[in-house]
Amino acid sequence: xxxxxxxxxxxxxxxxxxxxxxxxxxxxxxxxxxxxxxxxxxxxxxxxxxxxxxxxxxxxxxxxxxxxxxxxxxxxxxxxxxxxxxxxxxxxxxxxxxxxxxxxxxxxxxxxxxxxxxxxxxxxxxxxxxxxxxxxxxxxxxxxxxxxxxxxxxxxxxxxxxxxxxxxxxxxxxxxxxxxxxxxxxxxxxxxxxxxxxxxxxxxxxxxxxxxxxxxxxxxxxxxxxxxxxxxxxxxxxxxxxxxxxxxxxxxx
Length: 253
Known about the structure:
two-stranded antiparallel sheet, 3 domains, alpha+beta, Serine Threonine Protein Phosphatase 5, Tetratricopeptide repeat, SH3 type barrels, 10 helices
């Protein structure tokens, strides 16, 4: 019954528009997926992804393909990406519930801090470009109001304070955009794809082990710190612990 449900996810994608020229190859891969030729479907989907193309439908079908091969870590990795796209968010969430139920072990999860949820919302649902344009709009409005206050003396105070308020909002929105962009550049999401792996205190295989991560564990990856130690990723686990994980044991986006 659950396998039938996964196929339902695929079929309903017929109405999801793809935003790249590889439609024919995508359709070929989807036909392979529906024919239960999962490995062949994955090969075609990956060839599309390797060319730099991205869509919720692509990630969703890759996730479903890996789920049918019981490669649940990779399935979760792609479904998490599909979840970030509006057109596949609902289907990806349903598929993630199915995949998460099949993991033998689950990590304790600390709720994200309010400021983390806020900036994640800005990144996913508002967007950096929209924030910068909003800041620019308030900047123009503020400058226009201040200039107007010099000429329309009867409303001088109203225009002056309106302009000042707009400039303050512009600075706040611009600061939020810069910080959100910084977070997007510095941090990513990683998913363990090996059956299990050690989380080390230092980026060395002989360092002290602070925890063990199992297939499907997701964690935040610090790209800046990780860049100092090739072959390793510095992570914060969902239970709040920090440590180093061998790069080959996880996939990151």
